[in-house]
Amino acid sequence: EAQVTQNPRYLITVTGKKLTVTCSQNMNHEYMSWYRQDPGLGLRQIYYSMNVEVTDKGDVPEGYKVSRKEKRNFPLILESPSPNQTSLYFCASSLAGADQNIQYFGAGTRLSVL
Amino acid sequence: AQSVTQLGSHVSVSEGALVLLRCNYSSSVPPYLFWYVQYPNQGLQLLLKYTSAATLVKGINGFEAEFKKSETSFHLTKPSAHMSDAAEYFCAVSFMNRDDKIIFGKGTRLHILP
After folding, report:
1. What Cα–Cα distance (Å) separates residue B3 from each residue in A42, A82, B15, B33?
2. pLDDT of A56-73, one tens digit each?
3. Which chain A residue shows the shortest CA-CA distance from B88?
4. Radius of gyration of the CA atoms of chain B, in A
5. Which residues have CB under 8 Å from A49's CB, separation 6+?
6. What does the pLDDT read at residue B31?
7. Which end of chain A is more exposed for a tag (fewer CB within 10 A), N or C?
8. Residue B22 has pLDDT above 70, yes or no
């Protein structure tokens, strides 16, 4: 079954404690991205990756890191989480090409930073 | 600047009534347009897409959208609302010259009244 898998689904942590949210896709997609969803603000892109070892900043990259060492995986790293990073996070993947840009989304990770 | 705007963060319709969710885009190049739906506690999934073929696009669950270049619009409609249509709907746009970047609107939450 084609899917994007995020882990964990729920996470409560404290300020400053490094964490990683994993994302894996089994569709051989070139393009992967991370979004955060906040009430009234919709989806905002954090980082995206066009292919292995190619990553770029989205609209709200501050406080986040990513890596793309393998095509299927695109982890999101919060080196020193802060309360303003409390949010619902989605990973998505797609084939390359704007006309192919059907994004497949993971089920989401709800993060609370205390 | 390229952008997408959804009019109305909340829309309520009675069961059986017409659903109309509005989306306008701003672009100097031909866009590719998408509607995604997010059911509670789930990730987004594609409802329909326009990629320069027919201007009237039919999607899943009886939804359709019409691309109107003169109005820079891509409104989503469904003739008769069902309780199961209650969800959040996102309009999105991508452009061939934007490194496949996709821009999401802020979303419209659709409420179905019994």
Report:
1. 13, 29, 32, 11
2. 999 899 999 999 999 999
3. A42
4. 14
5. A31, A32, A33, A55, A56, A66, A68, A74
6. 84
7. N
8. yes
pLDDT single digits (tens) B23-82: 999 987 778 899 999 998 899 999 999 887 788 999 999 999 999 999 999 999 999 999
Across the interface, do A41 and B106 touch by the CB < 8 Å criterion?
yes
Collect all residues of chain B within an 8 Å Cβ-Cβ radius of residue A90: 43-44
Degrees (nearest 5) of the Cα angle A77, A79, A85? Answer: 75
Whether residue A99 and residue B102 make contact (CB cut-off 8 A), yes or no, is no
For residues A4 and A25, is the Cβ–Cβ distance under 8 A? yes
Q: How far apart are the first and last CA of chain A?
A: 36
Structure confidence by residue, pLDDT tens digits, A77-87 = 999 999 999 99
Cβ contact, residue pair B43, A4, below 8 Å: yes
Question: Residue B94 and residue A107: Cβ atoms within 8 Å?
Answer: no
